[in-house]
Specification:
By secondary structure, the chain is an all-alpha fold. Helix content is 59%, strand content 2%. The protein has a two-stranded antiparallel ribbon with strand order 1-2. A hairpin with a 5-residue loop joins strand 1 and strand 2. Keywords: Repeat.
């Protein structure tokens, strides 16, 4: 029956699909949440938030308990369709229902929609709920919060996210890429440059966790273990609603246009002499194509920001750094 409903939806026969759904609800008293997964999966991909709400109503009438897979698919469909208020009501309902414990990907999916639709109000509602229910957060959560901070041009929030992130995670290439992108968009070249040097150190040391999917998308292969919610961690401290000090008037505080050199690499444990040795040793180091691609993207981000902010000194230093590493022979402007 699920296949027939999905086929009807694909053909645009919504009336037929609704009738079939009613028949499913009226004709079987032993239905479970799994009996609706195929329908909800189609609605999440389409997206079709209206049919999701029809399905939810039938499941509620039949007193069918939602599982985490169905909940996630329903939230994704509602979010993709722009029904953020309805999606939040569903998440809140799940959190208050006995025996149901919404998993972190459900909240992350909602935060992703908030970032895409630039809805600070809904994001803060979600953060409040996550705190009350002690959901915790993982690297995906940080990524979505960064997007919100960038959209709002809230540089202090981005720095708070960075401080909170490094308390709980060791540095990794893909998260660093996201922080570099964020700081360049927020006009903080000093922080972007610093994170770029961290990235180079990881690439040189071989401490990378990057793989490629069959579709060519890059992803981190290290295990993303959620950080438990504890008293000292309060996501609301990021203060995403406040933007009184969003971007500083001086973009590169304490960073002279012509004074960016290897000395700054001491911030991640490499002295000046070690930096020179690293450059000499680069010829013997093999760095994977996925990591090289991320390096080029991040160098490109910082250099583009240098052009936008008229920081020719830093751009020159970056180009010199690129030319000293044979691994970056390919053009970085992608």
């Amino acid at each position: 029956m699920q296949m027939q409903i999905v086929d009807a939806l694909r053909l645009g026969e919504r009336g037929k699909a609704s009738n079939l759904l009613l028949n499913v609800g009226h004709g079987n008293d032993s239905l479970r949440a799994d009996d609706f997964i195929y329908i909800l999966n189609y609605c999440a991909k389409s997206p079709d938030p209206l049919f999701v709400m029809e399905t939810w109503r039938i499941m509620d009438e039949k007193e069918i308990s939602l599982n985490n897979i169905c909940s996630l698919l329903m939230v994704q469909a509602l979010c993709k369709g722009g029904y953020l208020e309805e999606a939040f009501k569903l998440i809140n309902f799940l959190g208050e229902s006995p025996g149901i414990y919404p998993v972190l990907p459900i909240y992350n999916s909602f935060l992703r929609a908030c970032a895409k639709r630039q809805s600070i109000k809904n994001a803060n509602q979600c953060l409040d709920l996550m705190e009350r229910q002690m959901v915790g957060k993982n690297e995906v959560t940080y990524s979505e919060l960064l997007k919100l901070a960038v959209w709002q041009q809230n540089l202090p929030a981005a720095h708070e996210i960075w401080k909170d992130y490094i308390k709980h995670y060791s540095l990794s290439i893909i998260p660093l890429r996201k922080f570099i992108w964020s700081f360049t968009r927020l006009g903080d070249l000093k922080s972007a440059y610093e994170k770029l040097q961290y990235m180079m150190a990881l690439a040189i040391g071989g401490n990378t966790y990057v793989n490629k999917t069959s579709e060519g998308k890059l992803y981190s292969s290290r295990l993303d273990i959620p950080i438990p919610s504890i008293c000292e961690l309060n996501l609301k401290k990021l203060d995403l609603e406040e933007n009184k000090h969003s971007v500083p008037s001086i973009y590169c505080e304490n960073l002279d246009d012509h004074a960016v050199n290897a000395d700054q690499c001491t911030t991640f444990g490499l002295g000046v002499g070690e930096v020179e040795n690293v450059r000499m040793d680069m010829l013997d180091i093999h760095i994977s194509q996925p990591v090289m691609k991320i390096l080029r993207w991040s160098f490109s981000d910082v250099i583009h920001a240098c052009a936008r902010l008229r920081n020719g000194g830093l751009a020159e230093q970056l180009i010199l750094q690129i030319s000293s590493y044979d691994i970056l022979k390919e053009p970085i402007f992608v």
